[in-house]
Amino acid sequence: MISVALLAGGTSRERQVSLRSGAAVQQALSAAGYNVVLLDTDCTDQQLLENEVVFSVLHGAGGEDGQFQTRLKKLGLPFVGSDAASSQLTFDKHAYRQKLLAAGLPIAKGARVDWQTYPWHPLAQKPHVVKPSDGGSSIDTFIIRKPAQSDLLAIEQSFKTHKQMLLEQLIDGIEITVGILDNKPLPVIEIIPPASGEFDYINKYNGATQELCPPPHVKPQLQEKAQELALQAHQLTGCRDLSRTDMIVQKDGRIIILETNTLPGMTATSLFPKMAQVAGYDMPTLTDCLVKMALSRAETAAA
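-> structure tokens emitted (303 positions)
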């Protein structure tokens, strides 16, 4: 029986989400016939080396930014997901933006700002989004539709935590997300937040948001275009095995890319497992597929 080191938890602010992903993946891998050893970032190298492959669901800093991937590479352990360089690039939202801009992919207008420059920036005078340059799960993300009524005290507190944040034009339209599995696009999911709220941290995990697949308000040709863009972003940033790219479909049919996540959530309510399910991959099948990709890559490298 193949032994899989499952990394979950970590020290980032996304720890609780990571633990939930870990519980779901542990159950799925066990059902797929693997011996699963659950570990956290305080594990020793020896504990890792006692396993044949690593499956990490360490969301946020320390697990999703290339640091843990670098450690695993030094140990010579095969692992599921993107390598250190790709993880670092996509985790740094400013660097990611620059990469996509250079390639001509459609993204929103944006800039990296600090607390001193943010209130006076031209983009901040119009509907906009402020979010950390790194991190995920919509933590410390502010969607500002009426700048004159924004909660500046809360935003200032986030700047104290992150020093610099990403300021982007707020793009109105239909929010969608597209996963990539083994260089193939998964079905598109349309995200419909509650009528009185946004797709923020709370509404991501409280069941108030509708996540529909197939998307009822996105025409088939636009779904295909979104899948093409997701694959382009995946390949451009050097992702492997899996990723998930979030986008907005505007009223005129233009699609704007928001960001790419190399380590999407794997909880019971997460988007990547939902779209994989529509494509025919239940959780045991999905996790088995990912582990086999990592092992196959190691075998090819050793040949």
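The CA atoms of residues 179 and 220 lie 16 Å apart.
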